[in-house]
């Protein structure tokens, strides 16, 4: 029985019934709160002691959603911030401060925001140890300096009712696939969810208003730009502008990809029209077996190219940034050579395997193409066109006049999309815009699969199989 069937079977079909049920599930029970608090205090004290031993003056404190009491049950991220003197350099954050953080834990992964920080797991709970500068408000030296001010701002303004509404907003954003400001997602951060909920005063009001958002939508909790709304497009070019309540020069929604904003808008409308628990708890994707995957690809009618390569020496956020940049460059390469790109996407296990998907209407083109020149009435342009194309080695036919302008048929340089990509990457990839940290990975080897040739890889990787299944489905789960 699905969650939605369970709701209906138990008489929980109205919007308010659903919200009450979700609120119950995402609110941490007392025993979880105690466990989270104990872990947070233990790590905080350990970091503080290590800082003292290293001769590093640091105000070590709990920040983020746990400190604000806006985390979701079962999904607590403990954020420990080390506030150090602004007289230290940015380099010190990644050396002295990071060493203190490393020594406080046993196993860790180095992550990167604007500068490095440490991520570890304690009793199944994610813990981040983040250095920042202990600055006065507005005198930021790094992006993370604002976080303690965000924490205090929300702690002062969120009551129990609003914290419940924030949790609904966060769970909805997660359920519809737009939660997370990291480069992999480029969606709604926790602070963005909190700010939006605070502004609209409830989850339902947020969704009602989100359904009417327009490009350049402004949300200004503190009213910094009251009466100055016309200046916003010049200050913030993004489609969604949520002014940081502790820094009027920053857009909290700056990292949100445009498609994630509009996906949130569409999901908001759809949920209010037909409330379902599935918006918060989407069904799990069942990966297609390799044979079905090949069959689906064959029936699709288009051609999918898969560029696969190995480990990229970069922290996760940088990896995804590099993948997106390279994906976009390969799209442009195909377009520039006459291929019609329908979609593209990137996938990574974030360790050993990376895949860029490029879907084209067809991977092989005719060997010639029509090239239209200027109208005959433009004498100088016509003369230049004729001089360039008459008798040229790649001219197959023409020039001739069709209606009012010159036309010529030219040989294509590239008629096979897979070969075009292979040749470009074998030459290094730099000239076609491959991101710098991906270049070494390509030099170590890459493969280009076409359509069902990817099946062998999907058998070996459940993550890739899940990704391909969702890619082929091609729609949000809440529409199913």
Could you explain how this protein is built, in words?
The chain is built from 19 helices and 15 strands. Helix 8 crosses helix 9 (190-200) and helix 10 packs across helix 12. Helix content is 42%, strand content 20%. The protein folds into four domains: 30-136, Beta Polymerase, domain 2 (2-Layer Sandwich); 158-279, CCA tRNA nucleotidyltransferase, domain 2 (Poly(a)-polymerase, middle domain, Orthogonal Bundle); 290-364 and 415-479, Poly(A) polymerase predicted RNA binding domain (Alpha-Beta Plaits, 2-Layer Sandwich); 368-411, no CATH class. The strands form four sheets. A five-stranded mixed β-sheet has the order 1-2-5-4-3, with helices on both faces. Strands 10-11-9-15 form a four-stranded antiparallel β-sheet, with helices on both faces. It has helices spanning 3-9, 15-26, 30-53, 64-68, 90-94, 96-103, 147-157, 160-175, 190-200, 203-210, 232-235, 258-273, 290-300, 316-336, 379-389, 417-426, 439-443, 455-460, 462-473; strands at 58-63, 77-84, 109-112, 116-122, 125-133, 217-219, 240-244, 247-251, 303-309, 341-348, 354-360, 368-375, 395-402, 405-411, 446-450.
Secondary structure category: alpha+beta
Largest sheet: spatial strand order: 1-2-5-4-3
Our Rg estimate from Cα atoms comes to 27 Å
Largest sheet: 5 strands, mixed
Overall geometry comes to: globular
Number of helices: 19
**Care to count the β-strands?**
15
* Mean pLDDT over all positions: 93
Strand content: 15-25%
Percent helix, as a range, is: 40-55%
CATH class of the largest domain: Alpha Beta
CATH fold title of the largest domain: Alpha-Beta Plaits
CATH level 4 superfamily of the largest domain:
Poly(A) polymerase predicted RNA binding domain
Uncertain runs: none
Number of domains: 4
Distance between the termini: 16 Å
The CATH architecture category of the largest domain equals 2-Layer Sandwich
């Amino acid at each position: 029985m699905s969650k939605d069937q369970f709701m209906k079977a138990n008489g929980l079909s109205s919007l308010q019934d659903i919200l009450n049920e979700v609120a119950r599930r995402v609110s941490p029970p007392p025993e979880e709160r105690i466990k989270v608090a104990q872990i947070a205090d233990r790590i905080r004290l350990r970091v503080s002691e290590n800082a003292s031993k290293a001769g590093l003056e640091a105000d070590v404190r709990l920040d983020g959603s746990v400190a604000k009491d806006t985390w979701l049950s079962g999904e607590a991220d403990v954020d420990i911030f080390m506030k150090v003197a602004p007289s230290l350099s940015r380099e010190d954050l990644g050396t002295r401060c990071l060493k203190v953080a490393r020594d406080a834990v046993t196993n860790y992964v180095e992550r990167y925001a604007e500068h490095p920080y440490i991520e570890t797991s304690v009793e199944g709970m994610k813990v981040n140890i983040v250095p920042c500068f202990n600055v006065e408000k507005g005198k930021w030296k790094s992006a993370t300096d604002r976080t303690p001010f965000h924490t205090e701002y929300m702690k002062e303004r969120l009551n129990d009712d609003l914290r419940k509404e924030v949790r609904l907003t966060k769970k909805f954003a997660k359920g519809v696939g737009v939660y997370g400001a990291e480069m992999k997602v480029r969606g709604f951060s926790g602070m963005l969810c909190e700010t939006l909920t605070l502004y609209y005063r409830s989850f339902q009001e947020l969704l009602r208003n989100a359904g009417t958002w327009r490009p350049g939508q402004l949300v200004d909790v503190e009213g910094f730009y009251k009466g100055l709304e016309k200046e916003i497009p010049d200050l913030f070019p993004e489609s969604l502008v949520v002014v940081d309540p502790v820094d009027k020069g920053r857009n909290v929604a700056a990292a949100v990809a445009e498609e994630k904003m509009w996906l949130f808008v569409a999901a908001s409308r759809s949920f209010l029209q037909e409330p379902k628990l599935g918006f918060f708890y989407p069904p799990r994707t069942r990966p297609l077996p390799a044979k079905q995957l090949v069959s689906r690809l064959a029936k699709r009618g288009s051609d999918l190219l898969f560029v696969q390569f190995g480990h990229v020496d970069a922290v996760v956020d940088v990896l995804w940034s590099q993948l997106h940049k390279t994906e976009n460059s390969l799209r442009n390469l195909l377009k520039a050579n006459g291929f019609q790109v329908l979609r593209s996407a990137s996938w990574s296990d974030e360790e050993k395997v990376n895949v860029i998907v490029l879907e084209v209407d067809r991977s092989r083109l005719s060997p010639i193409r029509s090239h239209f020149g200027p109208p005959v009435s433009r004498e100088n342009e016509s003369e230049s066109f004729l001089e360039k194309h008459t008798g040229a080695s790649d001219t197959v036919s023409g020039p001739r006049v069709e209606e009012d302008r010159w036309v010529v048929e030219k040989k294509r340089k590239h008629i096979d999309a897979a070969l075009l990509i292979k040749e470009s990457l074998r030459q290094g990839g730099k000239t076609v815009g491959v991101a710098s940290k991906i270049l070494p990975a390509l030099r170590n080897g890459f493969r280009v699969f076409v359509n069902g040739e990817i099946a062998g890889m999907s058998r070996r990787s459940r993550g890739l199989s899940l990704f391909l299944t969702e890619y082929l489905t091609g729609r949000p789960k809440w529409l199913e």
